[in-house]
Here is the input.
Amino acid sequence: MKKKNYHHGDLKQKTLEEAILFVKKNNHFEFSMRDLAKNLKVSHQAPYRHFKTKEELLVEIAKVGFLNLTAKLEELIEKEKITKLLDSVANLYIGFGVLYPVHYKLMFGGVIPDFEKYPDLDGLSRISYSTFEKMVKLLIQNKKLKKNDTNSLTFYSWSLLHGFTSLLLDKKLSIALKKKDSLQILPKLILLFKKGVGA
Here is the structure.
């Protein structure tokens, strides 16, 4: 097998991309660094120049995911009309999970068991969560939410969206819903959320 030569940054990025492609194709994370090297046609030691362990590689993907999600949420919160904010955030969050399922599962699926081992990752996850808090505060300030328990409402909104997105990605919505109903359930969930918090 002819080995490929990559520039320093290229190999790092190609290794990340190859890991994402593997998971998308096989729907699991049971690959080795040697598998990635073989697919990239580089020496089996080459990926270790950038990632000491497989988990470090997965952490990097999760970090990219949190940065991407937070940036999208921040931009939406800054630009969206307050009357459409909750619905728009819900659609953005779920859409992110659908577009980036590998990132999402690494961010929230327990594949990386201990975020505290990686302070950068832990910090990015908390910053991402704080965008939900920012949304809730804006809704309260503009009297779009009658209840003003910011902590509870932030957790409530995030857990609702996370639960729906996870069930969608894991193809478990069919347990409770017919296929045609699953397409219509999100607006109903948002409406129930608004009623529950006095919107």
In short: Residues 54-79 form the longest helix (26 residues). The chain has two domains: 1-52, 59-196. The two ends are 62 Å apart (CA to CA).
